[in-house]
Amino acid sequence: MNEKESTKDKIIKTASRLFQMQGYHATGLNQIIKESGSPKGSLYYYFPDGKEQLALESLQVTAKFVLDQIVDGLQKSSEPVMAIQNLINDMAERFEKEGCKGGVPVASIALETSLISEPLRNACQLAYFSFQDAFTQKLISSGLEENRAIELGIAINSMVEGAFLLSFTMGNSQPLRMVAKQIPVLLK
C-alpha cells in the first residue's frame, strides 16, 4: 500500500469509528484529523467535498465490513435457523467483549442525516438492503419461496438492528440473545 492510500484509509477508519460512537453531527473534521494523526491538508485532498463525502466513504467501508461478517456468519451452517441464530449469538458475544465501544455501524448516520442528506440516506438504504439481502439469500438457498424470504430478510434485519439499539441502551447483550432465541419461531 502506498503512503497516500495509507493516510486516506487512516482517515476513513477514524471517521467511521467516531461517526459510530458519537454520531455525524458530534464528530468534527478537526477531531478526525487529530485522532487519525493525518495532516489537515490530507482531509481536503482526499475528500474535497468535505464531511459528507468522508461520511459516505466511511459508511461504504463500514457497510462492507458488516456485510462480510453477516455473509461469513451465515455460511457456517447450511441450515438457516442454526446459521442465523449462531450469527446473532456471535454478535452478542462481540457486544459482551466490546460493550458500547463499537458503536452502531449505520444507524447513527441514518437517524441523523436521512432528512438532510439524500446521498447519505441513499448510502444507508443500500447498506441496510445489503444486510437484508444476505438473510434473504440464505433463506432462498434453503428452499424458501422468494417473496417470503424477502419479507423474512427484512424482519430479521429489523430485529437485529432493534436488538443492537436496545443492547446499547440496556448495556448488555440480552436483547440480541432474545432475538436469536426467536428465530426458530419466526422461520417455522
Quick summary of this structure?
The chain is mostly helical and 188 residues long. It has helices at 3-22, 29-36, 40-46, 51-74, 80-98, 107-113, 118-141, 146-170, 174-186.
Alpha carbon gyration radius:
18 Å
Number of separate strands = 0
What share of the residues lie within helices?
over 70%
The CATH topology is given as: Tetracycline Repressor, domain 2
Contiguous uncertain segments of 5+ residues: none
Order of helices and strands: HHHHHHHHH
CATH class: Mainly Alpha
> How much beta, percentage-wise?
under 5%
CATH homologous superfamily placement? Tetracycline Repressor, domain 2
Q: How many separate helices?
A: 9
Helices and strands: which structural class?
mainly alpha
Total of domains: 1
* CATH architecture label: Orthogonal Bundle
Can you tell me the overall shape? elongated
What is the average per-residue confidence, as pLDDT, rounded to a whole number? 92
Largest sheet: none
Note the gap between the termini: 48 Å
Please explain how this structure is put together.
Residues 28-47 bind DNA. It holds the Pfam family TetR_N. Keywords: DNA-binding, Transcription, Transcription regulation. Residues 5-65 form the HTH tetR-type domain. One of its GO terms (molecular function) is DNA binding. The chain has helices at residues 3-22, 29-36, 40-46, 51-74, 80-98, 107-113, 118-141, 146-170, 174-186. With 188 residues, the chain is an all-alpha fold. The protein has one domain (52-186): Tetracycline Repressor, domain 2 (Orthogonal Bundle). α1 crosses α4 (51-74) and α4 runs parallel beside α7. The radius of gyration is 18 Å and the shape is elongated. The model has no long low-confidence stretch (mean pLDDT 92).
